[in-house]
Sequence to fold (244 residues):
Amino acid sequence: YAVLIFPEQHLGGDAHLAFTSLFGDLEISIYRSRRSPLGRLTNVREDGTVASPSSLQARMLAGNTYWHSDSSYKRVGAKASLLAAHVVPDKGGETEWADMRAAYDVLNDDMKAWLDDKTAVHDYEFSHAPFGGMEVLSKEELAHLAPVEHPVVRTHPETGRRNLFVGRHASHILGEDLATSRRLLADLTEQGAQAPRTYKHTWSPGDIVIWDNRCVLHRGHSWPDGQARTMVRTTVAGETPTTE
Ligand code: OGA
Ligand code: MN
Fold:
């Protein structure tokens, strides 16, 4: 299984980190000076109030509502992510996953053949700049976020199963028309991430979910303005570039 849900575990930071370590090494944060590998995704400000939707803090979370694989803008994308709910809104704020192995399987043979040797450019700036927040990265941090290349059809290193490796960080296909291939990648993401290949989880405080970024996409769902939502995430580093 590529997504595992453990309800109401209420792990503290140390236990969350210890659980994460069972699956491999922690990934280095794009904020390279950050000391804790526990990433807080929250719209709650330091003073305890809820950030307004137009604030940088809220806008930087908004990108997560588009289908993606964590860190696919890095040369070695993430292996797994572990996301825990701390404070959840009354409604909304679900997280949804899409099985991109199944999405690959249902492509027609012509499309499978055409995609077989295609390479996508995944680009942090392409996917993040529209939401703001590039300015919080230092020059050195940005230098580590240059565009990278990944095969569009990825073979899972452990199961050998093929899957569609697309999502919001995938900008265009190498050697193809930019606008046309950008639209195709968006279509592959949108059409691939459809029922019955999706699962949407409604969070209770304390739930922790682990998923395999090498074969599923995920996205968050919005929730009513003014309500707090605090999640904590760790990321397990990938072991090999996607082509190996
Ligand atoms: C993440 C993410 C979505 C959410 O933590 O990587 O995309 O629902 N989260 O918070
Ligand atoms: Mn994510």
